[in-house]
Each structure stands twice: as structure tokens, then as C-alpha cells.
Amino acid sequence: MKAINYYVVVDKIKEKPKTIAGLELTENQNDDIRYLKGKVVSVGDLAVGINKGDTVYYDKFAGHGVQWKTKYYYVIKHGDIVLVE
To answer: Does some domain include residue 2?
Structure first.
């Protein structure tokens, strides 16, 4: 699987929601968080500044899911990525 143009394929990283004190919450308690974290699997040839293996933060309403073999990935546009670790 290879992304093309300005698209980036990410593997979503699930994190347990926590408060500042470290108390674990249920997943729906963190609905106010706007950005999700993911590991880049493939980068299109026009997406600049992002490399395969990078960890990125992207808008939680961005893109769509796609199943490749037995795994579920998200395809998002380069412009929906707000932070690269």
C-alpha cells in the first residue's frame, strides 16, 4: 500500500485518556480533545515534511478509514496534520 499526492496513511495510536493528576478516564470523557495521534505508514509524493515512521497529530474529523489485509488504517490529507514528533 502506498499513499499518493498529498495523502498520508497513518496507523492510529490509541491512548487512554488521563487527567492532569494521572487519573484514568473512560474514552468518551475525552471528547473535547480535537487531535488524534498516529504513526505514519506511507506518505504521498507531494506531502512535504512528513516521513514514514513519524508520529503525527491530526484532526480527529479528518480523512477516512481503509482496511488493508487484516489491519485498519486512516487516510488523511497532508493539510490535516498539525504536529510531527
So the answer is: no
Give the model confidence (pLDDT) of 9-43 as tens digits: 999 998 766 666 666 656 555 566 788 999 999 99
Which residues is 55 bridged to in the sheet? 39
Q: What is the CATH number of the domain that holds 37?
A: 2.30.33.40
Q: How far apart are CA 5 and CA 74, in angstroms?
A: 15
What's the rounded Cα separation, in Å, for the pair 30 and 73? 22
Q: Is the model's pTM score more than 0.70?
A: yes
